[in-house]
Amino acid sequence: MSRICPTHCRPGCRLLWLCVATVSTGGMLLTSATVALAQNDDPRFANWPKVESAAETRSYKESMRVAGAFDATARGFLEEIALPQLGLEANRTTIERVRKRLREFLLADFANDTVADEANKTCLQFMQSLAGNEDADAVVRVNAMLMIGELQSLDRKPWQPAAEVLAQAAANAELPKAVRIAACVGLARHAEATKGVAEEQQRMADVAVPTIVAILKEEPPEPATASVAVENDWMASRCLTMLPSLGALAPATAAEVVRTLDDDKRAINVRVRAAAALAAVAVPESTVDKAAVIKSISGLAVVALERDAAAADKRRLDPQYGGGAGQGAPGMSPPGTSPPGMMPPGMSRPGMSPPGMMPPGMMPPGMMPPGMMPPDMSGDASGLPAVEQTIPREVCRRAAWRLAVLADAILTEDSKRGVAVLGGDVTPAAVELAQKLRRAAMELDAEPEEATLRQALAGLPRPAAGPPAAEEAPAAVAK
Question: Residues 416, 418, 422, CA angle at the centre, nearest 5°?
């Protein structure tokens, strides 16, 4: 549970475990009374390793391989012995492995599709109830929802009946965010599995697109905490990355994506992904105003770099003006005092030179031996002071990624895709803007330094003056 997924989209993502809240289950979840949360008192099934090696487990697996029906004995084994293992305290430290083994060991080897569907249905109902049980630990509820998204048919594709359950959970604003995030993970897996197959794309779009639009429209509660904003932005980003797998954008969906692109309350990365989604699946029938979208993308590129530069300026000035009276930069002493171990001005210790005199054996600046520089006076052989880097390299690389995505959103390097090709008339201005963004991205990726970022900002066309941009939050993940 300590892994961080770079794309915020996989079960190992730490965000899946951050949201713990009291929640009403709403109408989509079964009553928790059906959940066999009570631990089985039989010591033979006290934890997952014992269940995996039990005679009952071997009998279940054998019958699923050769029998032609999923009978009451098989259902009872899953509901009363195997599936409750996900909620047992004895398995808490290995819950992710238990979830994986439940699927791989008990739900992957069936005689036919009918048996597989019945076993998956039993698991779906159990996990749906467990995910909605307010008495269960948050990590248990999250893993229950993740397991729903991991259910597979015999062909190892996502099990289709689970998609609607995942979509309903992801859109349910009354569920804890962690459970909704887990539902988004599974829904994305279903969406990605349909890419390139028109009939399946349409089926999945009918299920997923209403949920995606609902999440994009969702407004955070007031006052919204930083964690709530991060959670909402994560879900919005994941939804936007699903859209290219679901076929062409309908006008209403395209309009919501454009609104997200233009929403200055959204995180920059969410807006960047909105631009990428428009470029990937907008068609002439989506009725997108491509000139307005290209203008928005150009403005977003500038705002993104401005926020990085403004954050650096703030970090540089805070030690001087942000600490209040008697405060200074970290490691510096308040005015009128000397750092620990240092003597106040005008005083000296025995063996030390009086003020204005160099210590014995030291030479004043300008009289150093050839080829030597005073300590901390230079960062390179030129003798010039080292340039202070207040924009981390990771932030520079994130900026490069943003510029590259925005460049492709306008027009790809091969000129075959992007918002600019909608309608077939690609303007020279759009070509020039895409090239400029792409060139800046490549330079910033090659030299991820503050000077390169500021140079890229200076070279972009500036939008009309508006209110000052807010500081961009530090990025834990580049993309």
Answer: 90
For residue 123, CA distances in Å to 29, 106, 128, 357 come to 14, 10, 8, 83
Beta strands per DSSP E along 160-244: none
394 CB-contact burial (10 Å; exposed 0-12 / middle 13-18 / buried 19+): middle
**Short-list 55, 66, 181, CA closest to 112:** 66
Where exactly are the structural domains of the chain?
14-247, 248-318+389-479
* Residue carrying structure tokens 């398995």: 91
Q: How would you class 72 by CB atoms within 10 Å of its CB: exposed for 0-12, middle for 13-18, buried for 19 or more?
A: exposed
Q: What is the dihedral of CA 238, 392, 316, 454, to 10 degrees?
A: -90
Distance (Å, whole) CA 264 – CA 270: 10
Please state, in angstroms and as integers, the Cα–Cα distance from residue 434 to each residue in 169, 301, 404, 444, following that order. 39, 11, 9, 15
CA–CA distance, 398 with 444 (Å, rounded to integer): 9
Q: Can you tell me the distance from the alpha carbon of 449 to that of 174, in angstroms, rounded to the nearest whole number? A: 44
Backbone angles phi, psi at 158, to 5 degrees: -55, 140
Question: How far, in whole angstroms, is CA 243 from its chain's centroid?
Answer: 16
Place of tokens 């509660």: 221
Q: Tell the burial category of 120 from Cβ atoms under 10 Å away from its Cβ (0-12, 13-18, 19+).
A: buried
The burial of 43, by beta-carbon neighbours within 10 Å (0-12 exposed, 13-18 middle, 19 or more buried), is given as: exposed
Which residues, in sequence order, are bridge partners of residue 158? 152
Let me know if 10 is exposed, middle or buried by CB neighbors in 10 A (0-12, 13-18, 19+).
Answer: middle
Task: Give the C-alpha distances (Å, rounded to integers) separating 185 from 38, 157, 302.
Answer: 28, 15, 32
Question: Mean pLDDT per 10-residue run, the chain (479 residues)?
Answer: 37 39 31 40 88 95 86 95 96 97 94 94 97 95 98 95 98 95 98 91 96 93 78 96 95 97 95 97 95 97 96 85 48 43 43 43 42 40 56 96 98 95 92 97 96 96 61 44
State pTM to two decimals: 0.76
Residue 152, SS3 per DSSP: strand
